[in-house]
Structures are given as C-alpha cells and as structure tokens.
Write a structure and sequence with these properties.
The chain is of the alpha+beta class. The chain has twelve helices and four strands. Helix 2 packs antiparallel against helix 6 and helix 3 packs antiparallel against helix 7.
Length: about 250
C-alpha cells in the first residue's frame, strides 16, 4: 500500500504521549506542511499559535473541557481563522468605493482554510512517527480563549491539535471503526436517510444490536448532544460569529 494512503487509513487520535520534547526540525516540518496546504486565493487566512508556555497549556487544558493531557502534550497548536492581516491592508488602499467589513462568508472561508492547514499538520506528524488529537473544545469559552491567546478582532480560534510521540499502549490501541463508503457518499444529489437507516449504519459500524445498541445510542446522545459542553460550544460559536461581524 502507498505510504501516504496507509497513514490516512491507519491514523487515530492519540491522547497519551511520551514525555519528551519534539526536535525543532520536526516541529518546523509539521508547521511547514500547514504553510504549503491549499488556501483560498493563496491568502492563508489563518494564524497558528504554538503554545509553549506551560501556564498557557494548563489554562487551555482547563478551558477546553478539563482535559489534562493538553497541558502535558509536547506540541500544542491553536489554529485561528484570521482575516485581520488582509483587512488591515485593504484599509490602506484607495478602492474608489466603500470598503466592506468581514462578514459571515469571510469567516466560513477563513475557517475552511484553517482546518485544511490543521489537517496537513496532522498528516505530517503521522508521517514523522508522532500521534495527534484534535481538540474541538477550543470553540468553547470564546472569551477565555481570547484572553489566554491575546486574540484581536477578526481572529478566532476554530481548531486545536496536540502532538507527541504516542505511548506503546496508544500505538497498539485499536482504531475505532468507521462507516462504510456507501453509508456516507451520495452520488449527484443528497439521498435522504431516515432514523432506522442511520441506526442500521451505527449497528453495523459498532457491531451492536438490540438492547446493547439502544444503550449505546442513549449514552452517546447524552455524552455528545445533551451535555453541557455541547450547549456551551453552540453559545460560544454564535458569539464568535456575532463578534466577527461586529468587528470585535
């Protein structure tokens, strides 16, 4: 199998790392993978914050749903959607017309650029023998994240990842099963999938049925949907979008 394809197929989240620093050249290779990633109009609508301060790592571990492994990860990167640099340039230009301010579409475009760059670093890290884990909770507690990271207007944290050499247990740990291609790839137009079909998809993926499957679904809904972090993420994301459009 092609090595790149193998990395993509075998990649899994790693939350336990060997406590040793990553060589500087490896970190630079990972960061350069982000710089070389696709970007809308070659604008690079993102900024990466390499968090090396132990106190800031600890603060992020608390603000991101109290996950201690963030504080001890050898490499912690926060990926911010960033239109500030370009907007500052645009304000100096005589366009002969009113300059519009960044809006929702600009935020979505910058966010897409940012996540593409983040995934490039994850693949590069895997290629170098490191593990990684995305931290979706960076979208929560936007006021706290702004204070920790010193973020100005038109700069919002939309992705975060931690990296390091995986422990032996993490190397051997089985990757969670995924859906089949036929479950999630539609041809030419969207195909409606009702609840029974989705439940069947989950049953096949998890190898569960009957009461065991129902217990799994209930526990999952409570853990990932009807939970405090999900409510806070929704509130915080709405605030970030509102602030972006208000220039805050």
């Amino acid at each position: 199998m092609n090595e790149t394809i193998r990395l993509l197929m075998e990649r899994k989240s790693v939350r336990q790392f060997v406590q040793e620093p990553m060589p500087r050249e490896d970190v630079e290779t990972i960061l350069n993978a982000a710089v070389q990633a696709p970007s809308a109009g070659n604008m690079t609508l993102w900024t990466i914050i390499n968090v090396t301060d132990p106190e800031k790592k600890l603060a992020l571990s608390k603000s991101c749903d109290n996950q201690p492994f963030i504080a001890t990860a050898p490499l912690v990167l926060v990926f911010c959607a960033d239109y500030r640099r370009w907007f500052e340039v645009f304000k100096t230009l005589d366009l002969g017309e009113a300059l519009r301010t960044p809006g929702e579409g600009d935020f979505m475009l910058a966010m897409t650029d940012t996540i593409i760059a983040a995934h490039a670093t994850v693949v590069a890290a895997d290629a170098l023998g490191y593990g990684s884990c995305y931290i979706g909770d960076i979208i929560e507690n936007c006021d706290t994240q702004r204070e920790i990271l010193g973020l100005p207007e038109y700069v919002k944290p939309v992705c975060m990842a931690v990296y390091g050499k995986p422990t032996p247990f993490q190397v051997e740990r089985k990757k969670p099963p995924r859906f089949a291609i036929s479950d999630v790839v539609h041809e030419n137009s969207y195909r409606l999938q009702d609840a029974p079909e989705m439940i069947d998809m989950i049953s096949r993926r998890q190898g569960l049925e009957g009461e065991a499957l129902e217990r799994h679904l209930i526990a999952f809904a409570k853990r990932k949907w009807n939970c405090d972090f999900s409510r806070e993420m929704t509130r915080s994301a709405a605030q970030m979008i509102r602030e972006w459009c208000e220039g805050k």
